[in-house]
Write a structure and sequence with these properties.
By secondary structure, the chain is an alpha+beta fold. 40% of the residues lie in helices and 20% in strands. The strands form eight sheets. An eight-stranded mixed β-sheet has the order 1-20-21-22-23-24-27-28. It starts with a strand and ends in a 12-residue tail after the last helix.
Length: 694
C-alpha cells in the first residue's frame, strides 16, 4: 500500500450501499442532470432512472468525470436523504449496541376491559373513542386490547398511578418473578397463564439494544415516522422490527445500564452520561454540534469492536483502545485483504475487473470458515476496489511499488545490506516513525534506487499501472526534479529531468490505452523542499518550472507543492517569491495573456505539531495567505478555531492521509481520539450539511 491519499471522486457521492454477492442486484439512482458516457457515447438523462449498481460503476469509469453524479443503494437509508430507517435497516443493524434494563420492581395485571367505566378509571385508565388508554400518551399512544398487560411503576408526583402497558408476549420475555429473582433465580413470568385482574410482582430483567444516529434522521416507528432530535438515542426492537427514540436523562439512562459483558456498551454509556451532564449548559446550536460529536464517538467505538471481531489479536486478545491501536489493527486487516481480495481484482480495464470481482464475491459467499463480520469486510473491500477514485497526493519516490523498487536496486548493484535497509524502512513505516525527520530519512532510503531517467520511467510506469488497478480516474504524481543523473552519474538539468518524467507519464498512458486499459487523467506537481539543508533558490526554481511547462503542455495539469520537515524547516512565508510566481502566472492565464492552464498550489502545512519553531496550525494560515488551493494533511488546524474558520472560508481542499498521520508518524496525532478528518467534517456551514457517519 503506497503512502498516498485516495479520495472518492465526487463531492456528490453519498453511497453507503454494499454490492450483493454473486449477482450485483443493488440499484442506483440518477438525477435529471446526470451525464453518462458509455461505449455508444454520451447520454444525458432527462428523468430519474434506476439502473444496476455495476452499470453505475462502469459508467463512472467510462465518463472520467462525475461531478454532477449522485448515486447510492436503494436501501441505504441516510445515504439517500430521508428514507425512513427501520430496526432491520442495515445502518442500524451494523451500529447498535447491547444494554440491560435496570432491575426495577413493578406490579402488573391483565385488565378486564368489559368492566364498568368507573372500575377501569379507578386503576388509572382514560376512555377515548378508540378505547381505553393510559394517561402517558407519549410513551404509550395506542389503546389497550385483550392482549395487553398493565404495568404499575409506582405513583406520580400528583398522586396518580404511574402506569404503562405492553403485550403479554413482550412481558413474558422481559419480566421475571420478583421473589425468585431476589433469591438469585431468574424465572420469567408466563403472562398467558395469568387470570384477569390477578396482580403479580415482577422485576424487569431484559436485554435491549440501541444506537446513535444523526439529528434529523427519519425513523419508521410503529406509530408513524419521526425524526431523531439532539440528545436522543434510538432504541431497537429487532424482534418486532420496531424503533423509537428516548431522551438520555428521562429515558435510556433512567431505565437502562451498560451490558457488563460488552465493553463497547460500557464506553457508550460513559459517553451518554458525559453528554447528559454537560447539555444543560449548551445553546441549541451547541447541542446539535455535541450530538454530532457523540454520533462520531459512538461509531468509533463500534469500529474498534468490529475490527476486533474481524481480526482478533491471538496473543493478547485485546480490543484496540486508541486511535493508533485502531490503525494498527486496520493495517493487519488490510494486509489480509490485499492478498485475498485486491490482488485478485487487478486487470487494467474495468470490465475485466468487474468479472474478477464477481468471482471473488462467489468465493466469499462459499467460504464457510468466515464469520459474518469477516464476510462483510471482504465484500466492502470488493466494493472499495471497484469504486472510482481520485489520487491527489502521490509522492513519486515514496509510492513506487516495492517490487519495482527492489528491481531497480538490483540494477544498480545494491548489496544485501542496502536492500535489507530498504525493506527495513518499509517495516518501520508499519510500526510508526518517531518524528517527521525519521520519516524523511526512511523516505530517502526507499527512494535511493531512483536516480536515472530509466529509474524514473520505471517508477512512473509502476505507479500509474497500480493506479489503474485501484480504479483511479485521476492521478497526480509529485516530486522534486533536482538530483536526477544520467547513466554515467552526471547530473541532469532540471529541464531535462522534468521532460523525462512527463515523457514517462505519456508513454505509460499510451501503452495502457493501446492494450485496451483505462489510463487515468494525469497531473504533475513539482515539489520544492523546505528543509534548511536544501538551497531555498531551488524552491523558486521548481515554481518557475511549473509555470513554464504549464504553457508548453497545455493538456496536462500542473501544480506546485512545498514539502519537507515543517518542524525543522522554513515556514511557507519564507518562500513568498515562489508562491508569487505561481499567482502571477495564473492571473496572466485568466486574463488571456498566457497560454496553458493555471497552476495549482498545494502546501504541506499543519502536518506536524510545530513549524519553524511556531505552532503547526500557523503554517496552514500562512499557506492560505500565500494562495494555496489545497493543504497537505493540515491536521494541526483543529487545535485553533480561528484557523479552522479561515480554512473553511478559503474553500481550500485538505488532502488527508490517515495512515501517514496516525501510523507512520504517530506524533502528529498523539493524544487524539478521532482523526481530524472527523472533526473537520463537523466544521460545516448550513449550506453544506450532508453528513453520514457510517
Amino acid at each position: 500500500m503506497s503512502l498516498s491519499t485516495i479520495n472518492v471522486l465526487s463531492k456528490n457521492y453519498q453511497s453507503n450501499s454494499q454490492i450483493t454477492p454473486v449477482n450485483f442486484k443493488k440499484q442506483a439512482y440518477f438525477g435529471s442532470e446526470s451525464v453518462l458516457k458509455s461505449k455508444t457515447g454520451i447520454q444525458s438523462i432527462e428523468k430519474t432512472l434506476i439502473v444496476p449498481y455495476s452499470d453505475v460503476l462502469l459508467a463512472m469509469h467510462k465518463a472520467k468525470t462525475i461531478n454532477s453524479l449522485t448515486f447510492g443503494s436503494k436501501n441505504s437509508g441516510l445515504a439517500f436523504g430521508n428514507q425512513p430507517l427501520e430496526a432491520r435497516s442495515e445502518i442500524i443493524q451494523k451500529n447498535k449496541l447491547s444494554m440491560i434494563s435496570k432491575p426495577n420492581n413493578i406490579e402488573a395485571f391483565i385488565p378486564d376491559l368489559t368492566e364498568s367505566d368507573e372500575k377501569l378509571k379507578s386503576v388509572g385508565l382514560e376512555k377515548e373513542a378508540d378505547g381505553w388508554h393510559v394517561h402517558n400518551r407519549e410513551w404509550f399512544p395506542n389503546a389497550l386490547d385483550e392482549n395487553s398487560i398493565i404495568i404499575n411503576y409506582g405513583t406520580l408526583a400528583d398522586g396518580r398511578p404511574d402506569i404503562g402497558f405492553c403485550s403479554k408476549e413482550e412481558f413474558s420475555i422481559i419480566y421475571a418473578d420478583t421473589e425468585k429473582y431476589n433469591n438469585g433465580n431468574i424465572s420469567y413470568v408466563d403472562a398467558n397463564k395469568l387470570q384477569l385482574n390477578q396482580k403479580i410482582k415482577a422485576t424487569k430483567c431484559a436485554a435491549g439494544e440501541f444506537c446513535m444516529l444523526p439529528e434529523g434522521t427519519v425513523l419508521k416507528t410503529n406509530e408513524g415516522e419521526l425524526k431523531v432530535k439532539a440528545g436522543e438515542a434510538v432504541m431497537v426492537n429487532e424482534l418486532k422490527n420496531s424503533v423509537y427514540t428516548q431522551s438520555f436523562e428521562d429515558g435510556i439512562l433512567k431505565r437502562y445500564i451498560a451490558d457488563p459483558m460488552n465493553p463497547a456498551s460500557g464506553r457508550a454509556f460513559e459517553l451518554l452520561n458525559k453528554f447528559n451532564e454537560e447539555k444543560s449548559k449548551m445553546s441549541p446550536e451547541e447541542l446539535s454540534s455535541a450530538h454530532a460529536k457523540l454520533c462520531d464517538d459512538f461509531n468509533q467505538i463500534n469500529r474498534a469492536v468490529k475490527l476486533f471481531e474481524i481480526y482478533k489479536d491471538s496473543a493478547t486478545q485485546v480490543m484496540p483502545k486508541t486511535l493508533g491501536e485502531e490503525f494498527k489493527f486496520t493495517a493487519k486487516v488490510v494486509k489480509t485483504l490485499d492478498k485475498e481480495v485486491f490482488q485478485k481484482i487487478n486487470a487494467m480495464d474495468f470490465e475485466t475487473r468487474l468479472i474478477q470481482a464477481k468471482k471473488v464475491l462467489n468465493e466469499i459467499k462459499a467460504d464457510e470458515s468466515l464469520t459474518p463480520a469477516q464476510k462483510d469486510v471482504k465484500i466492502a473491500a470488493v466494493q472499495i476496489r471497484l469504486l472510482p477514485k481520485s489520487n491527489s497526493h502521490q509522492h513519486l519516490k515514496g509510492s513506487v511499488p516495492q517490487e519495482t523498487l527492489l528491481e531497480r536496486a538490483k540494477q544498480h548493484g545494491f548489496d544485501d545490506e542496502k536492500i535489507n535497509a530498504i525493506k527495513a524502512a518499509y517495516t518501520e513505516g508499519e510500526e510508526g516513525f518517531a518524528n517527521l525527520d525519521r520519516f524523511n530519512q526512511a523516505y530517502g532510503t526507499i527512494g535511493s534506487p531512483i536516480r536515472t531517467p530509466k529509474d524514473y520511467q520505471a517508477a512512473v510506469k509502476g505507479i500509474i499501472e497500480e493506479a489503474v488497478k485501484q480504479g483511479q480516474l485521476t492521478t497526480e504524481i509529485r516530486c522534486a526534479v533536482v538530483g536526477q543523473r544520467d547513466e554515467l552519474g552526471n547530473p541532469l538539468s532540471p529541464d531535462d529531468a522534468t521532460k523525462n518524467i512527463l515523457q514517462a507519464i505519456k508513454k505509460t498512458c499510451d501503452e495502457i490505452k493501446a492494450k485496451g486499459g483505462d489510463a487515468p487523467k494525469m497531473g504533475f506537481t513539482l515539489l520544492g523542499y523546505r528543509g534548511k539543508d536544501w538551497k531555498p533558490e531551488e524552491v523558486l526554481q521548481h515554481a518557475q518550472l511549473s509555470t513554464k511547462y504549464a504553457q508548453e503542455y497545455p493538456n496536462l495539469k500542473f501544480g506546485f507543492d512545498l514539502a519537507g520537515p515543517e518542524d525543522t524547516g522554513y515556514s511557507p512565508k519564507f518562500f513568498k517569491e515562489a508562491f508569487e510566481t505561481i499567482t502571477n502566472h495564473n492571473k496572466s492565464v485568466k486574463a488571456g495573456e498566457s497560454k496553458g492552464q493555471t497552476v495549482g498550489i498545494t502546501c504541506h502545512a499543519g502536518e506536524t505539531p510545530t513549524c519553524d519553531g511556531k505552532e503547526g496550525y500557523l503554517a496552514v494560515r500562512e499557506s492560505l495567505e500565500m494562495g494555496a488551493d489545497r493543504i497537505g494533511h493540515g491536521v494541526q488546524a483543529i487545535k485553533d478555531p480561528v484557523t479552522m474558520e479561515f480554512l473553511k472560508k478559503s474553500g481550500a481542499t485538505v488532502e488527508i492521509c490517515g495512515v501517514c498521520n496516525v501510523s507512520s508518524i504517530p506524533v502528529n496525532t498523539k493524544g487524539l481520539q478521532l482523526h481530524p478528518i472527523i472533526i473537520c467534517r463537523r466544521n460545516r456551514t448550513e449550506k453544506n450539511i450532508s453528513y453520514h457517519p457510517f
